[in-house]
Amino acid sequence: MAEKMPAKFKNNAAETIYEIINKITDMANRTVHAVNSFELPLSDIAVKTAAKCAITVAALLSIAVMIFSGADLSPSAISQGIKDKMALCNAAGEGYPFDVEGSRIISVDGISNATALLTDTNYTVLDKDGREVLSEAHYMVSPIIKTAGRYTLLLDQRSTDFNLKTLSGSIYSGKTDNSIITGDVSRSGRFAIVTKHDTSNAYVYVFSKSGSVLHRWKSSTYHISDITINPSGSLIAMCGVTTDENGQLKSCVIVQRVGGSSNLREYIFDGTLIFNVQFTDSDKIAAIGDDMAARLSVNVDKKLTYSYNDRTLNEFDISDNGNIALVLSNHSDGQNAIVTVINSSCHEVVNLETSLNSPSVELTNNRINLIGQSKLYVYNLKGQSVKSVNIPADSQSVVTSGGKLLIKGVSTITKAYS
Description:
This protein is an alpha+beta fold. Helix content is 17%, strand content 46%. The chain has a four-stranded antiparallel beta sheet, with no helix packed on it. The model is unreliable at 1-18, 31-45 and 62-70 (pLDDT under 50).
């Protein structure tokens, strides 16, 4: 634990206070357990002293890491962390399966120790056991959510409303001047929004978690379709599309420093439609296109690509460690899909042939989860089958959240298996 923590905090500088408290407590418990496991003739006082020492050492290490990584130690951040922790502790309900009465589930995503659930009427947070932590009506016509750490950015596409939330509720709400195209949120709470504009193809904004504008940029050449913000909120990358002087399709991925006045990188893709970008690290980007996937760097001008070789892309997912799962098919209707996993070098590490038609896929750091034909299929990253179980017929997607494998249906969230 002590060896892994600095690297984790380096990548996620704004780790929430309550998560840090959990880590301190866990380290203390592990230390006490280690002391007891030696079965030495220690008195209760000695064990209590060991626990206090462990807590003190863990606290000092955590604080030092936060200071050097630039984590937010402001009173407001500490107060918000406590509110979020209390909200989790006060969760109520019977747990999974969780039914959404009279509504349709739009999306499900994992947030710190919990699950964010968006329906056509409400935004809900569930704890790891499926009990309700928070439920708020959103009154949005075309809602989407983007999540990172404990933060959720709720956007109304084709309208102007947005809302930044944590586990205990909204911390900032606002409206844009023009209709929203898309957005993203970082683990630090900074968030980005792309809007339409009358005099340009798109406007890009980056906000602090308190709503202050930190960055704005006007796209006069490219129609921006997606944006990503790195964990610390210091960099943004966006993909856009246009046509050249001959009418040929041209995509780009533009990288900017928040508050900067010029592009750090601009990667061009001739004849490819890039429609999704995602930071896989503080300075690495995954880009998904209609005929290829790419890995891009911020610090150096480096572009690696993986061609689909005339196969149709049906679905994809990107894991926390940056691997990409691609659901490809030789048929336009997605028959007999092939699931390919590529690593940070764009090399194939898994190639699964299936008899499934356009299955839904989730890629974690050690599992490939597929849904197709009322079954869940679980594979390891060697392509070996781990488990297959029957699931409800209306199952649409799978997500790992709060240590549970969850199945999203039309109006119900269920655990895949116990």
